[in-house]
Amino acid sequence: METQVPGQARLQHQAEPEGAVAADTRTLVIGPYPVRRGAELPRPAQARLDEAVGLAAAIDLDVVDRLLLGVQAIRPSTYLGKGRVEEIAGRIAAEAVRLVVMDCALSPVQQRNLEKAWGVKVIDRTGLILEIFGRRASTREGTLQVEHAHLAYQRSRLVRSWTHLERQRGGFGFLGGPGETQIEADRRLIQERMTRIERELETVTRTRGLHRQSRRRVPYPVVALVGYTNAGKSTLFNRLTAAEVRAEDMLFATLDPTARAIKLPHGETAILSDTVGFISDLPTMLIAAFRATLEDVIEADILLHVRDIAHEDTEAQGQDVHTVLAELGIEPGAGRIIEVWNKADLLDPPERERLLNLSRTGPSGEAAARPVLLSALTGEGVDRLLARIEARIAESRASFALVLDPAEGAGLHWLYENAEVLDRREDAGGQVHLVVRLAPEKEPRFLNRFGAARRLRAAGG
């Protein structure tokens, strides 16, 4: 019998009402970005603010105003200067704002002082992302991971979203009461709950590990989709697998991982895994919490780094993905990464042609380093991507030539089931001439059965 998460029953009943409350929550989004004299920021401030507004929209907040601020110096008490705080207070009153989203990392003291000065709820970027994850998680694993991350965040603040642990919930924590009573009791209850979650997650991690082991025994190569949130990973996943994974023009539309089998051009089966999108300044606690989910990424044979090539901020987004991959121990230059330039359908013809030519030559002239330009929405370029995946897998596989007598139907069947048949022809005498490619683990069985086969290409050769 499954253990009930505290407040879980209440959360199920409140999910839709909370969405209605959020839609009525008049929200001001503030982008307080440091100004560096003589230094160019890695991402345009307006693009960062637009992303923050998109994050707020992802949980249906009613964004009535946005404000872009250049911050010369960060104040320890309020992040912003006194004059700015007073100016924004007037704006909040005039717009009847009930929630302020600060697109930065606030300390507990800064958050508390801003709430006192403005008389409304204040959340920072980490809090907002946690709220989105709380809304999106649908599996048992995802719910536990989000709750663990939320508890770790709340433990340092004690407490923004609830007055007692029973009121803790994954989404819309900022809509609760001030929660500044029973601090020591709350701290103890938080730690106890986090410990229980960690134990449950260990069980989930072992289960996922068993699933991965069973896949290895099959075995199929694993291809994982990674990329910035809203880059089109789920749309590409649906295109390649004919699945119906949620794909919307919304940040973090996908949170829980999904895996499906796909067929490559010469009949090889691969497992394609869709994963949570990355984002700049992703809270460290979320990377840690979702490490079990991201183990599919860490252990994948091939990573498809999907980029929204039509986005004005595509270079910075790509760098953010590289940063997260590096934190997972995957270097950007790893040979198993294929860069996918998605949303070609949004490009104007000259830019589309320029990028297509660039993808054909690549910066180094090597085929393995070239990106693949495609549109997951229309299907343009998907065949090129499948061929590239197959070619990358083939680099670790040997190929053989062999001849079968017409009566060897069982042997021919075995080859089609266990190998990639690259070429087949019959001579005048009816003998079947084949060129096949095999995974390394299948070579011993192949050579035992077809001892006369001639090796054409060694693995990695």
Automatic annotation (TrEMBL):
Q: Name one Pfam family in it.
A: GTP-bdg_N
Task: Could you list this entry's UniProt keywords, alphabetically sorted.
Answer: Cytoplasm, GTP-binding, Magnesium, Metal-binding, Nucleotide-binding
Q: Which PANTHER family match?
A: GTP-BINDING PROTEIN 6-RELATED, GTP-BINDING PROTEIN HFLX
How this chain assembles, per its entry, is:
Monomer. Associates with the 50S ribosomal subunit.
Q: What is this protein called?
A: GTPase HflX
Q: Which InterPro entries match?
A: G_HFLX_dom, GTP-bd, GTP-bd_M, GTPase_HflX, GTPase_HflX_N, GTPase_HflX_N_sf, HflX_C, P-loop_NTPase
Q: Where is the signal peptide?
A: none
Q: Which Gene3D superfamilies match?
A: 6.10.250.2860, GTPase HflX, N-terminal domain (3.40.50.11060), P-loop containing nucleotide triphosphate hydrolases (3.40.50.300)
What the protein does? GTPase that associates with the 50S ribosomal subunit and may have a role during protein synthesis or ribosome biogenesis.
Record-linked NCBIfam families: GTP_HflX (TIGR03156)
Could you list the residue ranges forming a coiled coil in this record?
none
PROSITE patterns tied to this protein:
G_HFLX (PS51705)
Q: Where in the cell is it found?
A: Cytoplasm
Where does the Hflx-type G domain start and stop, copy by copy? Answer: 221-397
The family line of this record is: Belongs to the TRAFAC class OBG-HflX-like GTPase superfamily. HflX GTPase family.
